[in-house]
Design brief:
By secondary structure, the protein is of the alpha/beta class. It is built from six helices and seven strands; from the N terminus they run ααβααβββαβββα.
Length: 205
Amino acid sequence: MVQLLAITDYIDSLAEAETRFGLSHNDEPSFFTEWSRDLPELSPSEQQRLDLIKQRYLYHRQCGHLLEGVVNFIVIAPLLELAGFYDPPFRLRSEASVRLEIADENDKIYQGRIDSLIVQEHLWIVLVEAKRTSFSIEVALPQALAYMCANPQPQKATFGLVSNGAYSMFVKLYQSQYSFSEDFSLNRQRNELYDVLRILNRLKG
């Protein structure tokens, strides 16, 4: 695992991840159906809690209080709680952070980091924390694949949730092939946290 964590520092593109781990992208819709089919329904209380989470996000975004890590506290932590990942039989394990820097069109450097949690060896939660919420989750997709390649049971599919709180995307890795879900955003009119929780409930099954 130490070697893997060192490798993630140098994987900054999907092409690099594909070369380093022998991966290929599978764009067949039938490859990754877990994010779009047979999703469990949410209870009214779950929907109410998700509506509150989104309301809090929009409130803090409007007030300009979205400092580093805050979105993950007000969105991701309660989302994982709703999914039941803090309780038996699930166990969370954290891995070392990966630091990252990105320059914008004006050559201004923004710093951030990628934190990761693994749930029961087959589900990775990869979080992007930065000083601006516009940090794209796409910067974390190569590192997510690197983490997921550590799956001790390669004959089984491994899944990941990559999120910066405001935007989320799911990843599937199976037999050296990977694919992504659509992205889910708190900036759209519909509360797409409904979809994220339903997919998490499907994957944990």
